[in-house]
């Protein structure tokens, strides 16, 4: 008796999976493990009181707000986003912006609109696994584009485009990349856009870390260089992920279709939370908040780099990013960072191994360290444990 549910699920559900495939129960074996996974703002930069007050003001509404509406997003919020994009050299009006439930929903709406089963998405190697979770759901195939310390390599993009069966779009995190922390060099961006244009394949620019630069100023989005770039933004890393507020800026030719897809998906984003974000970001609050966060994260990155310098085995290299949340470490002599992690975890340090960030599941000597979510002394302790374990194992 009972429904045989496995006969009921759709064909495409075979490709639904969780965000990353790591047997955490086999890794959390130390009594006090230090997990370097986090890709979220530091506890000191969770503006809970500020958001509570903004939320109180956001409830100053008429009856109309209690109904359905504003699929494309609350107009003052789209205005606010447009102003912020203009500060970063992207000339978009409020009408060109669609509010989404985080960048993740932008990826989903875009995939709904663009991907047929078997279409190819070109992705950086390595890339953000949460995006693969979405593309997999739409039965995409992949081509990897190799990267170096200046980001995506133009020759590799061209090779991947030539090899791709029905290429639909190039998914990229050009600035303060997840997982490597690198940024596509200014001199490369135009060349990449020209190649993409020649093959009639657009760039999808996922930019959660673009506003979290460490130096004097950041890199403008690639969208500043071409109106054909589909841009995904979010408040998850600059405010908090819990509010699920992001946006998308798409070419006019597909914007209305995306708004229709959004309506079919959830009618609109939360109308109160959108007002809350407008209240919270008024009077330059976000710029002040980011100024402090950038300085703190830059300091964390420097301390993490110094710990690596002190503890890593000879021949190990790592990135020293110009912003964002991640450092990418590469071990010497073709080590398999996935395989050895199970042994390292016994000493109480856990990183995200490179392999889980590649669509071809290649063996990788690299791993990702996030440096924003734990107190700094724990990272220093974690790197010391990691270094000792690596020196023992390698
Ligand atoms: C590259 C990238 N894209 C998208 C997301 C998801 O962002 P959001 O919280 O805006 O959905 C993340 C979160 O870690 C990310 O690193």
Describe what you observe in this structure.
With 394 residues, this protein is an alpha/beta fold. It folds into two domains: 5-46 and 287-393, Alpha-Beta Complex (Aspartate Aminotransferase, domain 1); 59-285, Aspartate Aminotransferase, domain 2. It is 38% helix and 14% strand. The protein has helices at 24-27, 48-58, 75-87, 102-114, 129-137, 154-163, 186-198, 252-266, 271-280, 285-311, 337-344, 376-393; strands spanning 34-35, 97-100, 120-125, 141-148, 151-152, 167-172, 203-206, 230-234, 246-249, 317-318, 326-330, 349-350, 352-353, 366-370. The strands form three sheets. It has an eight-stranded mixed sheet with strand order 2-9-8-7-6-3-4-5, sandwiched between helices. The protein has a four-stranded antiparallel sheet with strand order 10-11-14-13. A two-stranded parallel sheet has the order 1-12. Strand 4 (141-148) and strand 5 (151-152) form a beta hairpin. Helix 4 runs parallel beside helix 5, helix 6 packs parallel to helix 7 (186-198) and helix 10 packs parallel to helix 12. The protein is globular, with a radius of gyration of 21 Å. Bound molecules: pyridoxal-5'-phosphate (PLP). Pyridoxal-5'-phosphate is lined by residues 39, 102-104, 128, 130, 173, 178, 206, 208, 234, 236, 241, 246. Pyridoxal-5'-phosphate (PLP) binds next to helix 4.
């Amino acid at each position: 008796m009972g429904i045989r549910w496995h006969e009921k699920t759709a064909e495409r559900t075979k490709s639904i999976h969780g965000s990353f495939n790591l047997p955490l129960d086999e890794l959390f074996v130390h009594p006090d493990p230090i997990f370097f996974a986090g890709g979220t703002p530091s506890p000191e930069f969770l503006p809970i009181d500020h958001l509570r007050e903004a939320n109180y003001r956001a409830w100053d509404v008429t009856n109309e707000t209690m109904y359905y509406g504003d699929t494309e997003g609350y107009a003052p919020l789209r205005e606010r986003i447009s102003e912020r994009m203009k500060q970063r050299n992207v000339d978009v009006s409020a009408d060109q912006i669609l509010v989404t439930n985080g960048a993740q929903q932008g990826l989903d709406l875009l995939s709904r609109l663009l991907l047929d089963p078997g279409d190819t998405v070109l992705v950086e190697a390595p890339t953000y696994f949460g995006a693969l979770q979405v593309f997999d759901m739409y039965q995409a195939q992949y081509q990897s584009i190799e990267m170096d310390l200046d980001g995506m390599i133009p020759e590799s993009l061209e090779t991947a485009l030539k090899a791709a069966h029905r290429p639909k779009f190039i998914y990229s995190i050009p600035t303060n990349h997840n997982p490597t922390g690198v940024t596509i060099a200014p001199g490369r961006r135009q060349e990449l856009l020209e190649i993409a244009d020649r093959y009639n394949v657009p760039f999808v620019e996922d930019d959660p870390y673009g506003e979290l630069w460490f130096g004097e100023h950041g890199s403008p989005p690639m969208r500043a260089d071409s109106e054909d770039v589909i841009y995904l933004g979010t408040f998850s890393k600059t405010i908090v992920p819990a509010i699920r507020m992001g946006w998308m800026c798409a070419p006019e030719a597909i914007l209305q279709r995306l708004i229709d897809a959004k309506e079919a998906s959830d009618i609109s984003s939360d109308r109160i939370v959108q007002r809350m974000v407008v209240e919270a970001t008024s009077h330059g609050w976000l710029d002040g908040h980011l100024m402090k966060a950038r300085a703190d994260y830059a300091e964390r990155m420097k301390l993490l780099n110094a710990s690596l310098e002190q503890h890593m085995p000879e021949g190990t290299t790592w990135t020293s990013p110009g912003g964002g949340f991640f450092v990418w470490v590469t071990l010497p002599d073709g080590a398999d960072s996935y395989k050895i992690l199970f042994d390292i975890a016994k000493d109480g340090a856990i990183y995200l191994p490179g392999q889980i960030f590649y669509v071809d599941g290649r063996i990788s000597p690299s791993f990702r360290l996030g440096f924003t979510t734990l107190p700094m002394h724990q990272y220093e302790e974690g790197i010391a444990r990691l270094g000792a374990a690596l020196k023992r194992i390698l």
